[in-house]
Design brief:
Elements lengths: L1 E5 L3 H12 L3 E5 L7 H4 L9 E2 L7 E3 L2 H10 L2 H9 L5 E3 L4 E4 L4 H15 L2 E3 L6 E4 L3 E5 L1 E5 L1 E4 L16 H5 L6 E6 L3 E3 L1 H4 L6 E10 L2 E12 L3 E3 L1 H6 L8 E5 L6 H8 L14 H10 L3 H9 L1 E8 L7 E5 L17 E3 L6 E3 L4 H18 L1
Length: about 375
Amino acid sequence: MNVIVIGGGSAGMAAAVMLARKGCEVTLFERGARLGRKLSASGNGQGNVTNADMGAAHYFSDDREKVARALARFSNTDTVRFLESMGGIFLPDPRGRVYPAGRQASSVTDLLRGELARLGVDVRLNAQVTGLSYENGFRAVCGGVFSADKVILAAGGKAAPNFGTDGSAFALAENFGHTVVPCRPVLVQLRCDPAAVRGLKGIRVDAALRVVRRGKTVFCGRGDVLFTESGVSGDAVFRASSYAEKGDTLLLDFVPDVAEERLKEALKRNTGEEKLLCIVNNGLGRAVWKRAQDEDALLRLLKAFPLEVTGTLGFAYAQATRGGVPLGETDEDLQSVKRSGLFFAGEMLNVDGECGGYNLQWAFTSAFLAAEGVLS
């Protein structure tokens, strides 16, 4: 069987490996100069490929039940087994995030590249597919015209366009009558009122964070919060960005391990800015002290520092895309309901996960489902 895979990211490479192992003749098109560029930067360069705490509750989609069924067919343990079949060792950290033992994302890319070469997959780099049609078989336009029995579209969403994922591949799906859920960036820095973060740039704290919308908490988390010139970043903020919308309020607890009564007693022991010595970062303490009108206000700011969300830094800084081809327009193998033989994988679908290896897990899960569909 002759199969074209469009997109040389995690999902595309995985699908190509799975198909080639079953004897398919696979041609893999990648618009960039190298395969797996985004994968090589994943997990802060350490390669967080999946998570021990896996389930559909960690995903956003138009059909979360289908996501659950997909994960049941190719789970986190299947991902580790698949990757270790090519070499390497993958281990969870104390938070359940699974990494290669060498903590190098580029080595995961190298595993997949090496397997593609071993299997004889025809990899074409600097090769953007600009047209895709069907007439007694699929025809892909990329300089010349290439024919195939089946096609897997795994060209990514709109996040991180510096890696070649600018959303242009959605047009290939639309040519077959598919709709595309409007895309927005997730796992990204949040913008806030500049006045609220003035003087805090560069300060990093371990904080509890809540996202509040119209008086209701829609997300709670804890982790690093890094103040930037335009808002906040850090792993807690990236997780919150999957839930936050413009107009929401972030409430930061700078001393999440200290009860209010204990904090109140500590604040009585000094005066002025010295009240906050050894309680919070000195720079943060000075900024919070300037904003407080009295001791009660100071206590409130320490336990619930408010920041209004005004937006994000956009796709250029995002790790993932929300939106894409709806799962409802595919069958259980992620085959198009519009055109038999056309399959989707990865970020082209309207599925995105929380921070922590969930998006790479979806890449591998969707690659497996699409490959199984091609072979059935």
